[in-house]
Amino acid sequence: MKPKTLTTARRIVQGFFLLLFFYLFIETESKGADELGWPVRLFLDFDPLILITTLLAAHKAAVAFYLSLIVIAITLVFGRVFCGWACPLGTLHNLVGLFKKHAGPVLKLHWLKYALLVFLLVSSFFTLQLVGLMDPISLLIRSLSISIYPLFAKGLSSVFDTAYAHGPGWLTAMTEPVYEVLKQSVLPFIEPHYRQAVFVGLLFAFILALNLYERRLWCRHICPLGALLGLLSRKALISRRVSEDCNACGACVDVCHGAANPHMPALYRVEECFACNNCDDACPEGAVFFGGRGIASLPLDLGRRRLLLPLPGCWQCRFCVSGQRN
C-alpha cells in the first residue's frame, strides 16, 4: 500500500473510531442498571492502562477489561497505532492541531508522561486509583458527560424551543419533526446539570488548546496511556525504517505527530512514533517505509531516572503496611 493510501486509510479509521466513540457515548444514557453494559463501555474495556491499574489496586479485574490485551498485542507488533489511528482524544488533538500552520518549537518533556505513568502505577499499587484523572478515554468521557454534552443539549434544545415559541407556523412545522427525531436519538431524556461543568469544560478546552502551541502536546508529553504503549512499542516487530535514499532534507520533521526525531536516524525514538505514516507521505525520495525491525532506538531517557528508584522500597513498604493491618 502506497504512503498516500496509508495516510488516507488512517484518516478514515480515525474518523470511524471517533464517530463510534460518540455513538457509544450517546448510548450510555442511564437505562436503570447499576453498571454500563456492553458495548457502550467498549473503549474503556480496550484500555490497557485501566486493566493494569485495576489489577494493581484490586488484584482482579472484570473479564471485559482483558479485551485490552488485544491492544497490547497490536502494539507489540505495529507500535503505537492506537495513538495514531484509534484514540478518539488523539483524533480531536489532530483536528485542533490543523489550526497551527507551522510545527514550531517542541518541548523537551517526553519524560513527563513516563513519570506520570510511574506515579499512577504506584498510587494504584497502594489502592489509590487516580488513573481516571489522566487516562485519555476516561478524561474524554468525563469532559463530555459533565460539560460538553450538557452544553450541547441545552443549546440545541434552546434553538428548537425558541423556534416553537416565537417562530411562524411554517417554521414550527419544519422544526418540530426534526426535534422529535433528535429527542429520540441525540438529545438526553433529562438534561443533566453539573456544578463542575464550567471548570471541567474550561480544562478540556485548555487541553485541546495546547495543540495551538505544539501539535499533540498532550500525546507527546503528558498522556500516561501513550507512555505505556510507547514502552511496549520499543521492540515492535514492524516499525519505521529509512533506506539509503534519505538525503536528510528534514521534510518529515514538521509532519511527525510524535516528534520522534524522524530526520535523525541516530536520535530516532521509536517509542514516540504514532505510526501516522505522515513521514512516508512527506518524503520526496520515498526513503521512509514501515517494515520489519530496523533502526534501533535511543535508550529510553526519562530525564528523571531517580523516579524509578523508590519502587522496590514502595513494594516493601506496602507489605509492611499490610502487616500492620492484619
UniProtKB/TrEMBL annotation:
Q: Which UniProt keywords apply?
A: 4Fe-4S, Electron transport, Iron, Iron-sulfur, Membrane, Metal-binding, Transmembrane, Transmembrane helix, Transport
| MF terms (GO), sorted A to Z | 4 iron, 4 sulfur cluster binding; metal ion binding
Domain 4Fe-4S ferredoxin-type as annotated: residue spans: 264-293
What are the record's GO terms for cellular component? Answer: plasma membrane
Q: Which residues cross the membrane?
A: 9-26, 65-91, 111-132, 139-160, 194-213
Pfam families according to UniProt: Fer4_5 (PF12801)
Q: What is this protein called?
A: 4Fe-4S ferredoxin-type domain-containing protein
Q: Which organism is it from?
A: marine sediment metagenome
Q: What is the lineage of its organism?
A: unclassified sequences, metagenomes, ecological metagenomes
